[in-house]
Amino acid sequence: MQGVGFRPTVYLLAQKHALTGWVLNSAHGVEIEVSGSPAACAAFVQDLQLNPPPLAHIDSFEVQPSEPQVYPAFVIRESQDKAGDFLPVSPDLAICPDCRRELFDPADRRYRYPFINCTNCGPRFTIVQSIPYDRPNTSMAGFALCPDCATEYHDPANRRFHAQPISCPVCGPQVWFEAGGQKLSEREEALQTARGWLAEGKILAVKGLGGFHLVCDAANAAVVQTLRERKHRTGKPFALMAFDLATIEKYVTLSPAARRLISAPQSPIILAEMTEAGKKLAQIVAPDQTRLGFMLPYTPLHLLLLEPAPGYPEVLVMTSGNLSEEPIAYDNAEARERLASLADGFLMHDRPIYMRIDDSVVTMLREKPYLVRRARGFAPQQLRLPWEAMPLLATGTELKNSFCLTRERYAFVSHYIGDLENQETLSAFEQAIPHYEHVFRIQPKALACDLHPDYLATRYAQARSQAESLPLIAVQHHHAHIASCIAENGWASHEPVIGLAYDGTGYGTDGTIWGGEILIAGYKGFTRRFHLAPVPLPGGDLAVRKPARMALSYLLAAGIDLEDQTLPPVAYLTPAETQSVRHQAHTGFNAPLTSSVGRLFDAVAALIGLCEEISYEAQAAMMLESATDPQGGGFYEMPLENDVINPLPMIRAIVADLKAGVSAGSIAARFHNSLVRMSVEACRQIRQETELRTVAISGGVWQNMRLMNLILPALEAEGFTPLFHNQLTPNDGCVSLGQAAVALARLQG
Ligand code: ZN
Ligand code: ZN
Ligand code: FE
What we know:
By secondary structure, the protein is of the alpha/beta class. 35% of the residues lie in helices and 20% in strands.
């Protein structure tokens, strides 16, 4: 068993059944020994199984008889720290209902104290420097407990028994407000200054749990525009926070499961469909989207910042405190420097953050969370592996990096690190790896990385492999995607599955850029049964930023005239740029071949005039998904020719539809339907050849919810069993686990 609040619950149950003995946390979960009459022991076990603590997560529950022992009482033993064992570290937890009530209770001694917490809530991973998770090993070490807090801390019946970050206004961290290098106010007054500045339309940097947020009034178009300019972030949607569910539900529609998840201890940003009021707000904070990302205040400080008042902003933009694509700022001095040009003022506090971590982003799939960014609240929750693993480090990918460490039956997949192409993010990656290794006591005996020789994560693995003489296994990107999906789903055997790996970019074994791969894959290896026909990527990265170029590449491949100015991408590009695309495509100069489905999405979005140029990653694909007519039927032909998926008949049909005046919404719907229809047909063909009927779904393209909601029932109707991610993201955040799984299979047999 693992989880928060286990020991106090066990203590109270032992009291209830008049048992003696002990309870402790160890690497293997919670260990309990109780002594008493057989009937009382049995009643205790039953009670514990029926009423585990609310945040507990029970992997397995074992009961064994032991030699009779005499204990004077029932005690909670200190965390037992056996050399070499690991102790689980909890993710950070959103403020619990009890603490929230006390925060707003004038009679409580922690009334309006921004750092109130208890055993059931508060910071965890972000403040842990070492294990065991005891106060001296956290960033609370510098705050000595006052007598009142000490009494609570040592009382097994108290909700704050052994709550490591426990504090109060007398002994704990405090907030202050500063601007222009001057401290303007402290404590409650600082909160009021911050609220005043936000109401006046200023941008603040607010120190939270895992780092700084940039905060402003979401309904104030002028200040949001200023924030975009300062942050160099033109179109990308901003995350929002509102005081309570009732306020959030004015702007978005939440299913019962979404409502539960947004209020859960993980407290993620949830992407949800907008209401009419939401659409108005979106014009400011999330142009061209059909969904808004909302979260609830997950710390007491956030609650105090969002507390409703007449004339006060109801919704705040809460975006990571960074320049576009850099990692989130987390240290006071660092924030003053890095955020000075972004924020008008700073709401600071003096509880240090050891591990910076972004907010998690989720959407709902079949009433369960489907992750877009796995960070605060989810990491570093370990995943249970279907087999025993040697200590290994997999370094992940270049974009949306996570890394993965394994030991025993567990994989520790890191939180979202970011895009390593940037120096700041690379140092965050280089700092986080030794921290995870230290906290979970993993000394890697082998390494795994991507096949791409120039990825910085690959170079890190190569350098370490040389320095420490460790074996290094390079794993193809889409093989890793599929291995990750099956490992996460507990796939224990070396039997292969059918893998639908649809993605933006991944280095192929032939040196071209893959991303539309239908694999027959197990942990040890794979065959590339079908792939999207490769087309040139004219201008390389430039074609990724300008989907119009990608559309031209497909038009050329389909033999369609590039002089036709009625085609939106032709009209968009200058004649000179069109000429250069034509040249690159014909000569192959600066035009690597790609079979990426992500690029096919780009091309179609540009072809129908939705998006010729992007300002953030996956924008064209998101706009194509958003534009889709929900009622749209029909499909285009995507024939399977030997091992190639031919998209050109579809490109010609889309051009014909466009000329016939068919709406963008209908074309987008047909495009989604076609991909699903082709995928199911490919699976059927593989089943005829191999009798395989399990289909693993992974890759960034599968963040498209329309595609997911179509493919799952379509596969099931044909008798296939689809496997998809639910603990990791389908995007590149999952790849490190897959690299680890493949490397372990090869090394361990
Ligand atoms: Zn609490
Ligand atoms: Zn205190
Ligand atoms: Fe990928």
